[in-house]
Amino acid sequence: MERPVTPARPHHKLTEDGRRMREVLSYSRRGSRFTPRQAEAWAAHQERWVIPDEAVDKPDFTLEHWFGRRAPLVVEIGSGVGEATAPLAAARPAYDVLAFEVWRPGIADTLWKLDEAGADNVRLCGVDAVWSMEHLLGEGSVEELWTFFPDPWRKTRHHKRRLVSPDFARLAASRLRPGAAWRLATDWADYAEQMLEVLDAEPALEGGVVERWAERPVTRFERKGVEAGRTITDLCYRRA
């Protein structure tokens, strides 16, 4: 029996006997129906600004091809509807911003926000960010990493799905260049505590809780947290 070819992306992994493997991921894929505005933005900008999932499986994949240049790289994990992505990217035209988001309507919303902001330096990717950072990004290649309001997976039995884990902290630290920052924010106190515990334990990172990053736009996730009476925690760690 021929051994099956192992697909690249995590949601396509197979067991040794060729059966599809269920992965424990830090996100869930929601509905993909577009509003008219989202559909219009997708039609107008998807080809230029969205990296197709299947592109990362090609052996000659490079970010330089998709950005059309070589520039310092910023990575955002969980860009949502682009409320932070668009203004932050527009203020950094000399940087390339790789934004990971699995919710396609959110990507479509981001596209029109990028167009309005005049931010041509963003490429969106719907492939698992953890796999992508491991396989598509080289060590020391990231100038800054943003993780704003990642899914808190509130139920205790789901905490294993949280993005910020020892394994991911180790991976993220390896991708940051020395001195580069990982900026995080959450409105869930127990997730903030977990982030501190995990990131303080990673020897390649130095940092902790900081004042709110003034450049970070207030997003709907932050507004919801404030309205619910939750405390917003900002953290910043740098590669030692």
UniProtKB/TrEMBL annotation:
Database matches in CDD domains: AdoMet_MTases
Xref: SUPFAM superfamilies: S-adenosyl-L-methionine-dependent methyltransferases
Pfam family, one: Methyltransf_4
Keywords, comma-separated and alphabetical: Methyltransferase, S-adenosyl-L-methionine, Transferase, tRNA processing
Sites where the protein binds S-adenosyl-L-methionine: 76, 101, 128, 151
Molecular function GO terms recorded: tRNA (guanine(46)-N7)-methyltransferase activity
Catalytic activity: guanosine(46) in tRNA + S-adenosyl-L-methionine = N(7)-methylguanosine(46) in tRNA + S-adenosyl-L-homocysteine
E.C. no: 2.1.1.33
Highest taxon, organism lineage: Bacteria
Pathway membership: tRNA modification; N(7)-methylguanine-tRNA biosynthesis
Enzyme type, top EC level: transferase
Gene3D superfamilies associated with the record: Vaccinia Virus protein VP39 (3.40.50.150)
Its job: Catalyzes the formation of N(7)-methylguanine at position 46 (m7G46) in tRNA.
Record-given protein name: tRNA (guanine-N(7)-)-methyltransferase
Organism: Nocardioides abyssi
